[in-house]
């Protein structure tokens, strides 16, 4: 399989999806919003974008299965090739006209990530990588930061709507990061958080209770940029294990201990 050619085609699909999202944002109103749950919103833009992406991916790989956020196509668990698609990561941001929000597409081949594409719509930034490649942003090679002390690190955080209590020490961790690092940021798009760590804007990122489509596009990009990408125990179950750490290698061990 020509992973590079496949990745370049996916970049074009993501760009087209981003252009559609941008056009819809011009006339979008809150009346177009549906609620999947408390603070969990979706719109026709998410669904239409997903259908557009899946239609184009089918042309590239007719044999592939899919794992998608909006469920516009039946999920496949047994195909050797599986596309993992988040058509609009950061829906709440999109609804409020707030950056960032992203198109995120990853490809699994026999449970290995082999293509990753994240397109940040507002800045028109295309992040991408394929198996064996470097990581790229708009054609330029990117790498993680060289920050080697937690006190100098800028930390990206994310949390699910249910994680605002302190039963698991969550609030204590946030206070620690704020007091002992260069600061914390919550952007509202895990795909953006991961690729921003890949290019050194963040030094590390952590999030609980994510779904595969939140991380599949960005995880390969981050790894190819030199990041450590693991679950909370340091293992590799970050895609389906609903917990992820993305960090440059210099502060990874200390950051993992704090997480």
Automatic annotation (TrEMBL):
UniProt cross-references to SUPFAM superfamilies, sorted A to Z: Carbohydrate phosphatase (SSF56655)
Entry-linked PROSITE patterns: IMP_1, IMP_2
Taxonomy, superkingdom: Bacteria
Pfam families in UniProt: Inositol_P (PF00459)
Any one of the GO BP annotations: phosphatidylinositol phosphate biosynthetic process
Catalytic activity: a myo-inositol phosphate + H2O = myo-inositol + phosphate
EC number of this enzyme: 3.1.3.25
Keywords from the UniProt entry: Hydrolase, Magnesium, Metal-binding
GO molecular function: inositol monophosphate 1-phosphatase activity; metal ion binding
Family recorded in the similarity comment: Belongs to the inositol monophosphatase superfamily.
Protein name in UniProt: Inositol-1-monophosphatase
Protein source organism: Alistipes indistinctus YIT 12060
